[in-house]
Amino acid sequence: MLKDFIENRHFIFADSVENWEEAIKLSCKPFIDDATADEAYAQELVESVKKYGPYIVLMPGVALPHSQEGSGSVHKTSISFMKLKNPVSFDENDADMYADLFFTLASCNHDEHLKNMAKLSEMLLNEELVEKLHKVKNEEDLKKLSDEFNI
To answer: Which PROSITE patterns would you find in this protein's record (predicted)?
Structure first.
């Protein structure tokens, strides 16, 4: 899966963003750059979190921005990876609702989406890998992790 991020250029490393809304928008940039999704998709994700709350924070430090399959602004099924040096808070009243790792999903094919979710779930269950992902700083670090974990 990390190999896919690298090969597809679906990754971003950033120091900081103003807030979680900007983090979500930035995490969609690789999709916009290669026409996986339109800019409208990023706004759909932001609106979804505003409506339903920070459901995208899977665990402290890890967010999974996504929306319902079938969005007209998504043209390919894919996942992007973003690492922020400075995490963003999704809820100032809950210390666990922050993220510096973003795995943003775009989906227009149900079967491919399920495969991506299974791969991502397997990856996130590997505590050592997640711990090391929190420390990556650049593409080279990401490549090293991809080689180390063969993913």
So the answer is: PTS_EIIA_TYPE_2 (PS51094)
What CATH number was assigned to the domain covering residues 1-146? 3.40.930.10
Q: Residue 118 class from Cβ within 10 Å (0-12 exposed, 13-18 middle, 19+ buried)?
A: exposed
Contact 29, 12 (CB under 8 A): yes
Q: Record the pTM.
A: 0.95
Count of Cβ atoms closer than 10 Å to residue 132 Cβ: 15
Statement: residue 78 has pLDDT above 80: yes
Domain residue spans of the chain = 1-146
As given in the structure block, the two tokens for residue 1 are: 């899966």
User: What does the block give as tokens for 122?
Assistant: 């397997």
Q: What is the pLDDT of residue 109?
A: 83
* Dist. CA 105–CA 109, nearest whole Å: 12
pLDDT in tens, 21-67: 999 999 999 999 999 999 999 999 999 999 999 999 999 999 999 98
pLDDT in tens, 118-129: 999 999 999 999
Q: Which two tokens stand for residue 38?
A: 């339109």
